[in-house]
Structure formats: structure tokens, C-alpha cells
Amino acid sequence: MKITISEVSKYVGQEVKIGVWLANKRSSGKIQFLQLRDGTGFIQGVIVKSEVSEEAWNIAKELTQESSFYVNGIVREDHRSPSGYELTVTDLSIIQITEDYPITPKEHGTEFLMDHRHLWLRSSRQHAILRIRNEIIRATYEFFNEHGFIKIDPPILTGSSAEGTTDLFHTKYFDRDAYLSQSGQLYMEAAAMAFGKVFSFGPTFRAEKSKTRRHLIEFWMIEPEMAFTDHEESLKIQEQYVSFIVQSVLKNCRMELKTLDRDISKLEKVQAPFPRISYDKAIELLKEKGFDDIEWGEDFGAPHETAIAESFDKPVFITNYPASIKAFYMKPDPDREEVVLCADLIAPEGYGEIIGGSQRIDDLELLKKRYEEHNLTDPAYEWYLELRKYGSVPHSGFGLGLERTVAWISGTEHVRETIPFPRLLNRIYP
């Protein structure tokens, strides 16, 4: 019976056939231990010389790293194995013998591994990280579908910047200028006015010349937008969503977390509600921690976010930033116009901001004023103004960066390992 490694628990004591690659092997005289993978998981195959044909034994001896073959064997329970199962090999059928596979079990430099990213994906560590990524994506769809959201796909080519910045990838759209999308948010606001609660999930692009471990040039965003929803209601959705995806990973990716040596006790604490701290209090906290140069009105960098997060064992919301350092569309606090109704969600353990969100301006005249203040005279923004002209309502939304979230939950230091083929300042290969 042909199965996958992920299905072996259903076939204990039975003989099965699996298409596999050889990840590694070792020999102990008359026994060979084959580390096998098939894309769904890893399992050890044990081949005993006295229990198989001479041909099968010799085939096993020929196998090199990443050779592909079909293996027949009997599934056994083995509590010493990470998966809990082992395969007693009865026969082998070669598909291809690989020669000179470049990524060996020895240590390799990061640049070498990135140059061979198409092969590095096969390693147990990269496999675990990207399976956790997949679980976060799966749980995202489950959460928003169960909460009445509709998925809407915003365009990737746009005629303007979502946030009025200059860090854009420019291209020609026939006879006019166009840009790769920085965010689908403005379009999601339009969709929310049609469907109430919506979310998008897609690639975004920032031409930001940053080389930090938190930045990618191309990354994926989950961007919900909600009509008839104020800032406080949005914060509750955010903490429920993040709690849900963390608990889903804990439930469905135990083996992957173990492969990565992730301290799951820290993830188990991630349950709504999350602590909150105002921007004002954050400034005070930073000064107490020795950041004497930080002044009110300045944005926070990675060291500041890390220092703030150290005071909490859950993700923490920093709320009510100065309007001067936030996007033009954020609604001012009715009680204090110099700050806006917004929040950044900072992950624990030094992983930084994973969510940025706010209540949006719903007043047409105020938004026109913000346009003028930010020099947004481009006709490409006219449609966005019209959302406030025809049936405007209070509405809020947020954006979660997938790769930073994967890095935090999986315990991966650099976001380049949390996306299959990272695009960095100095890398567009492979």
C-alpha cells in the first residue's frame, strides 16, 4: 500500500510503500539506518542485512544524500523516535542516485545556504519553519471565516502609495506610472464598505534599503478591515486572532516546534487579553531603562520595541502614537488631537512589531485636510475620498506581517528563513 510518512500511524504492523529521499544515513556493520523524508515528514528506516535480499542490501549501500527511491517496509512504533514510528525496510527501488549534493551535514555559511535556497528548503529545520508558516496561514483562514469575514483580493499594481511614502517600486503601466503595492489597506476599506468585514492575504513590497533581521523587500500581509468598528473593538479582534494562530501552532505543529527547540512555555502564555501601554507611558518606560535620548514625537526602533517587550510575557499593544509619525488616514483621538487611535502590537522575545492598526478617519473634511497636510494631490487618491462622501461609517483595520509572526512563533532569528524564497536588499536569486 502506497502512503506518505505523515500517515504511518494508521499502518502500524503493516507493510507499506513510500516514495522518499535520503536525508542522511549511517551504518553499523550489518544494519543500515536511513533517515528518510517525503515532504510530509521524516522517518528512520532500518535495514538489516540478514532480513533482506542481497540486492536490496547493496542498493541501500549505494544510496547517497538526496537520492530518490521507493522504500517498502513494516511500520513499527518506536518511542525513541521523534515521530514515534520507525520503518523496518524490506525492499528498495531506486529512482535516481544523486551525486555531489552541495548541502552536506557539515556547517555551511549563510550566503552559501541562501545561494542554494532551492535545496536548503529540504532540511529538517527549514521544513519545520515553513510548515509552521503553513499552519499560521491555515489558521488565519479558519479564524476570519468563522468570524464572518470575506476574503477580498486587492490589486498588486497600484497608481499610488498606500501611506504616502517614497519607498516604492516604480514601473510603467503602458503610458502611465504604477507601483508595486505596499499594502492593500485602502482597497480593503472600499471592500469593507461593500461587505462589512473583509480581509486580504497577499504579497506586498517595500523599496526600503534595510538590512535588519526583521526586514524583507517582498513579504506577505494579512489585512482585515471592518465597517462599524471602533479602535477598541479592533484591538479585541487582533488579540483574539493572534492568540488563535499561536494556539493552533501549539496544537498542530508540536513536532516542528520540537525540531526547532522552541520553548513552548512562552507560547502557551499567549492568550487574550494582551497588555496595553500608551505611547506616553512607553516613552517613560524607555527613559527608565536608560534610553535617555528618546523624546516624545520620535518613532521607536528595534532596540526600543525590544526593551518595551521585555517588561511583558505576552505581546503588548503600544497605543496612541503622535499623529506626526503615523499615516494620514488614522483618526485623531477625540480627546487629544495630537495623537491618533492606533496601536502597534509588539511580539515578545525581541521580535518587534507584528501588527500595525488604527481606526480610520471617516470624516470627509478632515480627510481632505490630511490630504493637504501630506501633499496628496494625486488624482489617484480621489476614489479613496469618495468612500467618505457616500455612506461613510466608523471603521478600523490592521495589518499583520506574516514573516515576522512566523519568526516569532517558530523562534527563528532572521525573517529570511520564514519565506520560501526571500527577497533581500542584495538578493533576488534563486
Automatic annotation (TrEMBL):
Provide the primary localization: cytoplasm
Q: What is the lineage of its organism?
A: Bacteria, Bacillati, Bacillota, Bacilli, Bacillales
Which residue range or ranges hold the Aminoacyl-transfer RNA synthetases class-II family profile domain? Answer: 130-430
* Catalytic activity, reaction form: tRNA(Asn) + L-asparagine + ATP = L-asparaginyl-tRNA(Asn) + AMP + diphosphate + H(+)
The EC number(s) attached to this protein equal 6.1.1.22
Is Nucleotide-binding among this UniProt entry's keywords? Answer: yes
PROSITE patterns associated with the record: AA_TRNA_LIGASE_II (PS50862)
Cellular localisation: Cytoplasm
Say yes or no: keyword Transport present: no
Query: What protein does this entry describe?
Result: Asparagine--tRNA ligase
On subunit structure and binding partners, the annotation says: Homodimer.
Q: Mind listing the GO molecular function terms for this protein?
A: asparagine-tRNA ligase activity
Q: Which SUPFAM superfamilies match?
A: Class II aaRS and biotin synthetases, Nucleic acid-binding proteins
Keywords from UniProt, A to Z, are:
Aminoacyl-tRNA synthetase, ATP-binding, Cytoplasm, Ligase, Nucleotide-binding, Protein biosynthesis
Family in the record: Belongs to the class-II aminoacyl-tRNA synthetase family.
- Which Pfam families does the annotation name? tRNA-synt_2, tRNA_anti-codon
